[in-house]
Amino acid sequence: MVGESAKNMIVFGDSQNMKELKNESVHLVVTSPPYFNAPFDYPDLFDSYDKFLTMIKNVAKELMRVLKKGRIIALVVDDILIKGKKYPIVADITKIFIDEGFRYRDRIVWVKPEGYIRISRRSGVLLQNPYPMYYYPDNLQESILIFQKGEFDYKSISQDIKEVSKIDIEEYKKNKWYLNVWYITNVLPNNNRLEKGIAAFPEEIPYRLIKLFSYKGETVLDPFMGSGTTLKVAIELGRNAIGYEIDIELLEVVKKKLGIKQSYLIRDRKEFEIIIRDDAKRLRTKLQEKVTKGRK
Ligand SMILES: C[S@@+](CC[C@H](N)C(=O)[O-])C[C@H]1O[C@@H](n2cnc3c(N)ncnc32)[C@H](O)[C@@H]1O
User: Fold this and answer.
1) In 3D, which of 52, 53, 50, 65 has the Cα closest to residue 17?
2) Residues 204-252: pLDDT tens digits?
3) Does residue 245 have its Cβ closer than 6 Å to ligand 1?
4) Are 208 and 234 in contact (CB under 8 A)?
5) Count of other CB atoms within 10 angstroms of residue 157
6) What is the pLDDT of residues 33-85, one digit of tens each?
7) Which CATH number is associated with domain 25-243?
8) Atom of ligand 1 nearest to the CA of 35
9) Domain layout of the chain by residue ranges
10) Which residue puts its alpha carbon closest to atom 26 of ligand 1?
11) Which of 12, 127, 219, 249 is 20 to 30 A removed from 175 (C-alpha atoms)?
């Protein structure tokens, strides 16, 4: 059980149940869930859209339990187009988190550079048919949804901790963190990269969110860890890091990203505690086979 003195921990298992975490033991959540059955990443992962939303709801409940009062959950999400139908994931997730008792605080639009589009170029339809009704825009953005669990007590943080966690105003101004539109290059789909087959987000996203919404020495959780981007950045910024990932096939990728040499066992108080639960699954190989088949 991880509590106030939590260090770093990785659990391979389903984050609908985060029994390893005590109530109110986490200071910030930075994450990105699967985008339902996204064709490039998770074809047929869920039997239905309702099952996907139920999973999100169960995770939201667990996050309400483990998050400290006043603290933030930041979720990177987007609507997804599957076989010509768009699923309103951003709206549905917003509704679920509000229903679970979180305050909807902000939506930041993450804009990727033109030309680095990963989603299919739908706009070509109009070039083929330059007439009304053939308009399908290319998607260059995703949403970063920000939720808060009640009011934050600004007085609960000592001046010393505030000082060591101070935000660099030059960086804040120069990179326009003050806007609710963030221009950040996405992780490019490249066969040689460590995150192959994982819809990883760029380090700049957790970097900004962790700096803006947590203090040094606090604990950051990612309940959909993937390759471990959030955890890597959290450690680099002097925070503790906890991740949950259902796919045990990502173990080696995560260890590589975090520079973990061996698997430390439960209760072994080393840098990262790694717990492999019975509900972990083997997903990536099968998913990638389906993605490749779908492209042919
Ligand atoms: C969009 S990816 C996260 C990528 C991550 N942000 C990164 O930079 O690598 C979502 C991850 O959630 C995992 N996942 C899906 N359902 C889960 C569940 N119920 N519990 C834990 N992890 C889950 C998927 O296997 C996938 O690796």
Assistant:
1) 65
2) 999 999 999 999 999 999 999 999 999 999 999 999 999 999 999 999 9
3) yes
4) no
5) 13
6) 999 998 878 888 999 999 999 999 999 999 999 999 999 999 999 999 998 89
7) 3.40.50.150
8) 1
9) 25-243
10) 226
11) 219
